[in-house]
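Reagents: none. Just compute today. tRNA-2-methylthio-N(6)-dimethylallyladenosine synthase.
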Amino acid sequence: MENFIKDIDIIAPEEAQACDFKTTEEENTGKSKKLYIESYGCQMNFSDSEIVASIMKDNGFDTTSDFEQADVIFLNTCSIREKAEQTVRNRLNHFNAVKKSKPELTIGVLGCMAERLKDKLLEEEKIVDIVVGPDAYRDLPNLVSSAEEGNKGVNTFLSREETYADISPVRLNSNGVTAFISIMRGCDNMCSFCVVPFTRGRERSRDPYSIVNEAKELFEKGYREVTLLGQNVDSYKWSPEENNKARLNKKEEEVSQVVNFANLLEMVALVNPKLRVRFSTSHPKDITDEVLYTMKKYDNICKYIHLPVQSGNSRILELMNRTYDRAWYLDRVRAIREILGEECGISSDMIAGFCTETEEEHQDTLTLMDIVKYDFSYMFFYSERPGTLAAKKYEDDIPLEVKKRRLAEIIEKQTALSLERNKLDVGKVQEILIEGTSKRSDDQLKGRNSANKVVIIPNDGSLKKGDYVHVRILDCSAATLFGEVVA
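Predicted 3D structure written out:
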């Protein structure tokens, strides 16, 4: 069970508010100073850290994997759960000892936690020198220079235009095969449990031609898979005159061109048939048949959709302000299966124990899981976040032990469904992209199939990272497929 949870990113009850993190790697290109970044939370944060590293590299910084060697430490933070923020505060305590012996060290808090707490962070965490929100990273060199002169600084301005389209990210923790491309920023959905609209601002879409150019550059450097990132990729909408979706919707007839997400998907797919294309995350209210048919048209657009449901009960979905009900969600799943087939991978997010959720409503989530048959899911119990609509309007009235028990039942259900779905692959031949060696042994290679499932094959020395290979699936666990190369 532990390996299953670790491999498939399902969160155990006792770790239900934990937070993934990544750190910078060692780079020595002769720059005069060293930058260390710890990134927490979602893929968007990891992508943002690559933008930050690029900005700082242009201003005299190499990256380091050892924070004790750094001249500047950045924590790129997440606010989606309380545990994520507490983790950051604990890390700041670790850095305090370094700061005492190295007072010239600059420490900054970036991202969603910075945006939520703003200058309050400077008061609460005395060793923090700068606080910068997700739309103000271009200001980091100025703020760092000011901090080196003894001045603390805050920039949490939320932009309606900033997309960092002109910045070429420094790829951090890269396997050289897969990469993220940020296609939009912000979120216009006001889910009652979520802080993202307050910490990342309104939706605005990046110039599609800059996205295509980034994909081309990555392919030329040897990358073979890109993931298009956005808080809600299906609402991507761009014109040369306006990249802010809310304003664009009001004057669509006045602009010269409109590129929607289906158009963008096709543009990236056409970069090269050997470049796989993925995307995340989709909102059930916005994913269209046009997107599904575009996925069907191109073999290199992976047949996998992350479609968070959060709850299987319509009343709870209304309280969450998800703007769809159970029937709407199941209709979107039906369309996916009809257009893309039963083999298309579908994953989800689940929240156990949202405000006022009854046992019967919890059961609705379990029955919906049985109908959809998710390949895997990211699962948590509800964590009230200050400033959200839910925190203002609803009492967090489900006892923690009930939340944990319901979460455990959801995890148990998903474990069984993941195994059931993986068994359907046994005996089939699938194309996988080799990403490197297995975590457990250099004698095995790890790749992924189109449906985003990990596939393990023997390493006979003839294959390398970035190779496509056809594999017959011989066996499976709930988390992994095992196969052999076929000629």
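The CA atoms of residues 163 and 206 lie 6 Å apart.
Action item: order primers for follow-up constructs.
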